[in-house]
Amino acid sequence: MRAPVISLLLALLLSSGCSREVRQAEVPAPEPSITEPRDGGRVVRRLESTVSTLNYVLQATEDERQVLSLIYDPLIAFDRELNHIPAIAARWEVQDRGRAYVLHLDPRATFSDGVPVRAADVIFTLHKILDEESIQFGSWFEGLDREATVAVDERTVRVVFRDARATQLSAFNIGVMPEHIYAAENFKKTTKVVGSGPYVLKRRERDRSILLERNPNYWREKAHIQEVLFRPVPDDAVAWKALQRGDLDVGRVNNDLWFNVRDEPAVKSKIGFLDIHHFSYNAIVWNLSDPMLDDARVRRALAMSFDRQTVIENLYRGQAQPVTGPFT
User: What b/e sequence results for 164-191 when a residue is b if at least 16 CB atoms lie within 10 Å of its CB, and e otherwise?
Assistant: First the structure.
């Protein structure tokens, strides 16, 4: 959520609601005459900050994730109901009571340079996640047993963890980096960007724009949109004006702005608001080393006194959900 008051009150009012972003996009006429997608065109998307890296393992921000998710396909994807579905891994087995995962890579899977995605690339990526202490993915694989994690054959990898985790399968919602590209480069400094997703990097003007182009060698159904241009626009007011002018096609707006303009006819005629849940949450974290919080009854009383629904309605304009823990 991007309500202006959040930055002022976050330290004081950390709610346990699952934040819901409001994403906005230009929409067609109420009764479009064309129902089938057409190939071509360019979509301009807002970034809220500049992108520091396009190295998949080193990514650290939501804006970097937005760009990289179009360049890299994950090993395992999610459907709309958050069920695991095949992507680069065509199928998988869970073994040893949840400690081992055997991933069978789709034989069609290739990187944008045409080289097949292999088991060795998966192992290379997992090792880099740990070696580089990846901010985004390091905690997902902190229990990885490196010695037991091996390539069974060219397209089969067995990934072993020291302990079982109920959510471990979801950790494989990661891209795979090509070993033949990144092992030969300075991993942190290389400017090469090679993935297995529907788009490839066409041009990057640092701090100004990132242009992606449809991947002609994509191994699955190709994207309809020819180009996606990302532009960093940090200021919400500037971004809103750019959306109204048509300089941006897609961008987030903060909750207060959405709440104030959502019913204006001039806005409704050309702007569509979409509510999209984030895989993130806010929470009160107890410091158990503090004697005041040592008693579980005190913690329970404090938790019960926190009116989450009022925070959701007044701070988030109703665009959040209360959750009972850190998992969807």
Answer: eeeebebbbbbbbbbbebbeeeeeeeee
